[in-house]
Design goal:
single chain; mainly alpha; 4 helices; 57% helix
Length: 74
C-alpha cells in the first residue's frame, strides 16, 4: 500500500471519529462508572433519588452521556 493510500485511509478514519455524535451514545453502568469515576452504587443511588436519569427498557440500566455530564456538572 502506498503512503498516499495509507494517509487517505487515516484521514477517513479521523473524519469518521470527529463526526461521531456522542450526545446520543448510551453506556451501561460499568462504562458509566469508569467514565465518571464513581461507584456503581453511587450511580444507582442517584437514579433512585431521581437525580440522574437512566433507561431500563432493555433489562439493564443504561445512561446517556449527556445526562451523565449534566449531572456531574451540578
Amino acid at each position: 500500500m502506498t503512503e498516499d493510500r495509507v494517509n487517505e485511509k487515516l484521514n477517513r478514519i479521523i473524519s469518521m471519529l470527529e463526526d461521531k455524535d456522542t450526545s446520543n451514545r448510551w453506556m451501561d453502568i460499568t462504562e458509566t462508572s469508569k467514565y465518571s469515576s464513581l461507584s456503581k452504587s453511587t450511580l444507582r443511588r442517584a437514579v433512585l433519588n431521581k437525580q440522574l436519569s437512566a433507561s431500563n427498557n432493555t433489562g439493564k440500566t443504561l445512561f446517556k452521556i449527556d445526562d451523565v455530564e449534566r449531572w456531574l456538572s451540578r
